[in-house]
Amino acid sequence: MPLPDTMFCAQQIHIPPELPDVLKQFTKAAIRTQPADVLQWSAGYFSALSRGDPLPVKDRIEMPVATQKIDTGLTQGLLKVLHKQCSHKQYVELADLQQKWKNLCLPMENFQALLQLDPCEDKIEWIKFLALGCSMLGGSLNSSMKHLCEILTADPEGGPARIPFETFSYVYRYLSKMDSDIPEVDTESYLANLKDTVDSRKNGMIGLSDFFVLNRKV
Question: Is the pLDDT of residue 98 over 80?
Answer without folding.
Answer: yes
